[in-house]
């Protein structure tokens, strides 16, 4: 009995770790970073688009002539088509971050397909013609989601640099920048959440770009980074 419980516990822990892994997925292509010695990195922004925040981020990027990748939610694109079109018009890469931003590890195949299809449709409706990569909400995936992504030929993009602390700790833009500077390396994929009124991350985005530029880094989209 004790052994059975122990095995069940170990299995449970293993499954949980796998569902959260930034590096491995049971099937299909997952990219966390790219192995290169070139000083190139990809900035990726999750969630939204939300009004005001989108404009702020786009302005920071435009002023610095930086191209980035936005993983957007179908429901937010539906609510904010103008902001979606602005991102597309500026030439950035747009990815699928699900429709509802719910954890997708225990969804049925029908639910997963609807989340992906409806969001892809919003992305195409905005005029975007580039490749559509996927980033799972909360990084959560297990069996059904990777399986369906592989069936569609869709890549999962995770990250190796994420400075934000979501445990309630207040971070200044300078602290966020410093964590990026400490953890970045050539080929990194950097995750930031500047939508939903997160002005500290918006300010940090400018600081991160300026500091990394000084260190000789160039910014590319995920599609360019993985080419
Ligand atoms: Zn998200």
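^ structure tokens above, recovered residues below v
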């Amino acid at each position: 009995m004790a052994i059975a419980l122990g095995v069940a516990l170990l299995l449970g822990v293993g499954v949980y770790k796998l569902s959260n892994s930034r590096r491995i997925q049971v099937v299909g292509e997952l990219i966390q970073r790219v192995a290169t010695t070139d000083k190139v990195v990809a900035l990726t922004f999750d969630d939204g688009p939300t009004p005001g925040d989108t404009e702020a981020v786009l302005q920071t990027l435009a002023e610095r002539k930086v191209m980035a990748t936005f993983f957007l939610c179908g429901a937010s694109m539906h609510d904010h088509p103008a902001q979606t079109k602005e991102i597309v018009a500026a030439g950035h890469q747009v990815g699928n971050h699900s429709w509802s931003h719910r954890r997708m590890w225990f969804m049925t195949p029908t639910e997963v397909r609807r989340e992906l299809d409806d969001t892809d449709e919003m992305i195409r409706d905005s005029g975007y013609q580039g490749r559509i990569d996927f980033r799972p909400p909360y990084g959560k995936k297990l069996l059904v989601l990777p399986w369906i992504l592989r069936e569609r030929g869709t890549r999962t993009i995770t990250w190796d640099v994420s400075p934000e602390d979501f445990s309630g700790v207040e971070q200044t833009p300078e602290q966020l920048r410093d964590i990026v500077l400490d953890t970045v390396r050539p080929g990194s994929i950097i995750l930031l959440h500047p939508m939903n009124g997160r002005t500290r991350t918006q300010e940090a985005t400018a600081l991160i770009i300026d500091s990394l530029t000084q260190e000789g880094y160039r910014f590319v989209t995920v599609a360019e980074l993985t080419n």
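The first helix runs from residue 2 to 20.
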